[in-house]
Amino acid sequence: MPSESVTSFLDYARENRILPIDQVQELVRRSEVPQENVPALCDALVSRGLLTPYQAACIRSGRGKELSFAGYPVLDELGPCPGGIAYKVQHTSLRTPIVMRRLRPDWLVPADNLSAFIQRAQHASTIHQHHLTSLLDAGAYEDQLFVVLEPYEGATLESLVREIGPMPAFLACAFIRQAAIGLNAVHRAGMAHGDIRPDVLSVHPLVPSSRVRADGSTIHRPSPTSTITLCEFGLIPRRPSLIEWERSRSVTVGEWAFLPPERLNDGTATLAGDIYSLGQSLFFLLTGRTPYPANSTGEFLQMLANSDPIPLGLIRNDLAPELITLIQYMTARDPSQRPSVGTLIERLAVFQSPEHGTSPLPVPTVPKAADSNILGEEPVALEPAPPVVVNPPIPSDLVAQPIDLTTAPSANEWTVQPYLGSSHDGEEMFAPAAAGQSSHQDNPLHGFSVQTNAPIARRREMSKAEAQKQKRQWTLIAGGLWLLSIPLWIILLNTYGCFDSQKAEPDKPIKKRR
User: Fold this and answer.
1) In 10 A of CB 241, how many CB atoms?
2) Counting Cβ atoms within 10 Å, is residue 212 exposed (0-12), middle (13-18) or buried (19+)?
């Protein structure tokens, strides 16, 4: 018979769905399963895969009641997340793992409230798109806010760029275009994301590469079928203006680096603001740098109010002028000059090949946000974006030294080269899909292969030299084959008597010499 403590544990596990009912009944019937105390039972359950080590540790330390939250069995603690701590929980009916975030009360301060956040999250949960993370549930339990998300794996584009380096133009455009496709579903629902940056753009799946970090761990790279997922949609609280927000809490420049200038005096998230953030995210993928390299929040506010980013052409001199122009439209200080998300999807499709990303193209006309979108659906009626203040006032306590872009480093000091492949082992960090392998229609890696990180002029010289070398090799092979065929022709012609000077005439007697 199980002890009283074991019986109480099994009852709790059954009521809170930590263990299925049939498994609980089976455990009670088996004599080989320890029944005398809960720690011994936990060890047996972990060895059988019925409990996770995290669950067993909670039970041994007397925190068994933490294994159920808002009706979800808790499987593991994943660690810190924006606004709180993330946990792996179990779907109550499908028994599959999903992700729960338990958020701090101050996450909504100072501009949002609990009911408005939950209502907005519930609205976001009705929008489903391949390039959006799905929000499954949201609510409050025991005075704590929680949200439940579908699990997603991979790495953020920010971490990918910081480990591998700036991306080739075709790959960066393809990734941002996928994010724009997900954003299109958001905008069509009359909502805005409000905080798009490389850190909320997830690329998956990943495969290990031959490169390692300083600690010996393996660096992963995108697989040939990698796609982009836009995360955090519906989870961004309403925020005040950047100036008010800086006064209310301690923030880092990284939290603001991709927000539009109109957010200085107005914290409202807008559709045009999302386009600006996508443009600055594309700037980061191409350069490996934030658009405003400030060292403090005060310096950043000063630069955002009065300065433009360092020109992209100084940092990446291999980009097509038309691509640079498109990014300038996306990051225009005037929100009305930015293209709609549908137009952006159409324009970025042109630059998804290596040739078009770095070669001249017909100059595109960029329709404004008021134009209908590319997907052929009726645009959602939206209120116009608030007018932007070109030089909004900055509080005296935030004013930094003016930024003089005329003293910026020279073009040679700013120029970066995209990471196109490994220079020491020949590995393709962005490899094409294998023969016969299926890939998504938006897969940016399908059919493209880049193998070297040499400068462009050097790569062209290497290509010409390689072509001439191959031409000489084929010429020698053809000449050798021709020489080898000469004896065969001689034998063949001799077999048919082509070299006989006289032919014997049949039925004619041969005269004898006298």
Assistant:
1) 17
2) exposed
* pLDDT at 449 (0 to 100): 32
> What is the rounded distance in angstroms from the CA atom of residue 369 to the CA atom of residue 384?
10
How many CA atoms within 13 Å lie on the side-chain side of 154?
23
Helices (H) and strands (E) in the chain, counts: 16, 9
Contact 335, 431 (CB under 8 A): no
Place of tokens 């909004």: 392
End-to-end CA distance of the chain: 133
| Rounded Cα gap, residues 98 and 91, in angstroms | 6
pLDDT-based confidence at residue 250 (cuts at 50, 70, 90): low
Sequential DSSP letters for 401-428: PPP-GGGSPPHHHH------S-TTT---
Distance, CA of 417 to CA of 317 (rounded, Å)? 9
Q: What is the pLDDT of residue 356?
A: 54
**Distance set, CA 82 to CA 184, 255, 348, 376 (Å):** 24, 11, 30, 36
Secondary element (H or E) of residue 123: helix 114-124
The number of angstroms, rounded, from the C-alpha of 175 to the middle of its chain's C-alpha atoms is: 7
- pLDDT single digits (tens) 148-205: 998 877 889 999 998 888 988 988 999 999 999 999 999 999 999 999 999 999 998 8
Between CA 124 and CA 150 the distance in angstroms is 13
pLDDT at 369 over 60: no
In order, the DSSP letters of 285-305 are HHHSS-SS--SSHHHHHHHHH
The residue among 447, 444, 375, 418 whose CA lies nearest residue 228 is 444
Residue range 258-278: average pLDDT? 91
Taking only the tens place, the pLDDT of each residue in 471-495 is 888 888 888 888 888 888 888 788 8
Give the DSSP H or E segment for 116.
Answer: helix 114-124
Q: How far is CA 88 from the centre of its chain?
A: 22
Residues 6+ apart with CB under 8 A from 320: 169, 351, 356, 357, 358, 359, 360, 361
The torsion defined by the Cα of 420, 426, 430 and 432, in degrees rounded to 10, comes to: 130
d(CA 490, CA 474): 25
Confidence at 358, pLDDT banded by 50, 70, 90: low
Residues paired with residue 206 on neighbouring β-strands, in sequence order: 222
Encode pLDDT of 108-140 as tens digits. 878 888 889 999 998 898 898 989 988 899 999
Helix (H) or strand (E) run with residue 243 in it: helix 242-248
Q: How far apart are CA 74 and CA 54, in angstroms?
A: 9
Q: What is the DSSP letter of 333?
A: S
At residue 134, the pLDDT reads 87
Contacts of 129 (CB under 8 A, 6+ apart): 181, 182, 184, 185
Q: What is the mean pLDDT of residues 402-430?
A: 49
